[in-house]
Amino acid sequence: MTMTVPDERGYFGRFGGRFVPETLMPALEELDAAYAQAKQDDRFREELQYYLAHYVGRPSPLYFARGLSEFLGGARVYLKREDLNHTGAHKINNTMGQVLLARRMGKRRIIAETGAGQHGVATATVAAMFGLECAIYMGEEDIRRQSLNVFRMRLLGAQVVPVTSGSKTLKDAMNEAMRDWVTNIATTYYLVGSVAGPHPYPVIVRDFQRVIGEEARRQIQEQAGRLPDYVIACVGGGSNAMGMFHPFLDDEEVVLIGVEAAGHGLDTPLHAATLSCGRPGVLHGSLSYLLQDDDGQVAPVHSISAGLDYPGVGPEHSHLMEAGRARYVAATDREALDAFKILCRTEGIIPALESAHALAEAVRLAPQLSRESIILVNLSGRGDKDVHTVAKEMGVSLDE
Amino acid sequence: MNKIEKRLREVLARGEKGLIAYITAGDPDLATTVELAVAMGEAGADVLELGVPFSDPVADGPAIQAASQRALAGGVTVRGIIRAVEQIRRRSDIPLVLMTYYNPVYQYGPGRFAADAARAGANGLIVPDLPPEESGPLLEAAGDNQIDLIPLVTPNTPARRLPVITGRARGFIYCVSVTGVTGERESIMTDLAAMTDGVRSVTPLPVAVGFGISRPAQAAAVARHCDAVVVGSALVNTVAQKAGTPGLIKAVCEQVRELKEALTAREVQGVAAL
């Protein structure tokens, strides 16, 4: 299977490309050249390695979830503990890589979009560490449901810019970040948080997140003596899933499962399951699956998890689905909440609601498998940020 | 030579500069859009640019974003807009350009979109998120249907990209006056002369400048460096303010007339462009 994509125009099969205003084209070419050079530079790789080890805390553990596995009564479930990274999610793998790239390019101002706030926090964190100016675009609706992360970003010195256009969520934050970039192109580095956006972002973000899968592949062989049967990760834009899947692509016996947000159910309009229910379209600079109406207007989406509440998906996921290499399923808000609670009780780990969607698929799958089977779940983030949302769902008030 | 370029050359031959006036289709409704388009042509607009709204217009500032959302909330569709173009064309011979983003075109099908738009009477297309590297299918369809795909050049476009962008262009070249999104601005800092000179060195097509231009004096100043000026957000704001009142069409036309007057004044005639 030919997985050494994309081509030089940024196409993964028929997906990807560079659908952006002309102002951004020279900047994307500049970024492409700078990244190609950085990738070949030992000093860049060593610098990134240093910060990943000593600042982020890598490698992150691979943990055999004995309590969860016994509770589910079937396959053995292993968790890749990205929740234990500095700032509590996988997002910092990418922001650390890209901030080093921005510094090489001489950019002094960093902008980013954020949904749940995890990418915003991870961006604000590296910007603070390197003394760079930082603005984070965040939908008003997300600001409301993720107030803890908003405060964290402000503590870290970032300006959080509320986005009031459109659905006031992640896609609108990305629109606004692109408008800022178009306006401040000379001084500003746009630090995209997922494997979405125009070429070369889907490649850059994938490459910086690959460390998840590279470590996990080595760790599972050390601990279990073999590769897993299933690898499961949640998919919004799809960066944690792509980082986890990519090193397993050539291991054809390993089944890769991406879990999208089914919200209130795929038979309702209130979901964010792009690959399950969408069709190809162009949003945020690339051609990929998209939730949209007949006229090509982007559809409003819903998920209990702000990080999955996105109508698009990275182009390489569209490619992996059409090539038949990865399978994409969806978990409802309810299933994610149930999995969230199960992990709290069986393992003493509070997962992010995003990651709880991946867990929900493991909860469904594990009991159907034998004890010899191995499921590897990417626990992409921790759930402290979601405690308010979960309390509300459980009918508990945390306010005085 | 197609209708758009022909019209702009006629305007230049009279010693004037062209006015390209933008409104968003379906804001406040398509019936009003048709009336506005016809009246704006009579008031002095040389080319009409009709926005086909998209839910996520990344190249647009607040005024056109809001107009797009109003139009979409009112239920406007691509098919409805093409029918409106037909109605405009029955009553006016103003050259008509559709401005939209690529996804509505992609969903409609680039071939069918170009064919239906041309058949209805549209003369040009502007798709700001479709750089030359991605424009192959639409460019081919546009060529087959005698509809001009008008490209954008920005202040940061390097010289080496100019031939790629303008090589297969028709109608005119749209120079974006600022690195930024659409919307009214107090002043325009870009060295317009350098940009338009660069464009003229690679193409004989007329050169228009847009983004940020709202007032007649501003239009006149910009016009010294180009063949036509695009005004959008300022007109869209007037539509928003006057929507639902009997004075809507009169107010927009008054603005068009003032802009066109400024582009006919002696000061802008100095730089004979073509």
TrEMBL record, chain A:
The enzyme's E.C. designation: 4.2.1.20
Ranges where the Tryptophan synthase beta chain-like PALP domain occurs: 57-381
Enzyme class: lyase
Cofactor(s) demanded: pyridoxal 5'-phosphate
CDD domains assigned: Trp-synth_B
GO molecular function: tryptophan synthase activity
Recorded catalytic activity of this chain's protein: (1S,2R)-1-C-(indol-3-yl)glycerol 3-phosphate + L-serine = D-glyceraldehyde 3-phosphate + L-tryptophan + H2O
Name by which UniProt lists this protein: Tryptophan synthase beta chain
Organism listed in the record: Desulfoscipio geothermicus DSM 3669
Automatic annotation (TrEMBL), chain B:
Chemical reaction(s) catalysed: (1S,2R)-1-C-(indol-3-yl)glycerol 3-phosphate + L-serine = D-glyceraldehyde 3-phosphate + L-tryptophan + H2O
Protein's recorded name: Tryptophan synthase alpha chain
Keyword Amino-acid biosynthesis listed: yes
UniProt GO MF annotations: tryptophan synthase activity
A cellular component term, taken from the record's GO annotations: cytosol
Subunit field text: Tetramer of two alpha and two beta chains.
Segments passing through the bilayer: none
Source superkingdom: Bacteria
Keyword field: Amino-acid biosynthesis, Aromatic amino acid biosynthesis, Lyase, Tryptophan biosynthesis
Function: The alpha subunit is responsible for the aldol cleavage of indoleglycerol phosphate to indole and glyceraldehyde 3-phosphate.
Pfam families (UniProt xref): Trp_syntA (PF00290)
NCBIfam families named in the record: trpA
CDD domains: Tryptophan_synthase_alpha (cd04724)
Gene name tied to this protein: trpA
Keyword Lyase belongs to the record: yes
Pathway where it operates: Amino-acid biosynthesis; L-tryptophan biosynthesis; L-tryptophan from chorismate: step 5/5
Protein's organism: Desulfoscipio geothermicus DSM 3669
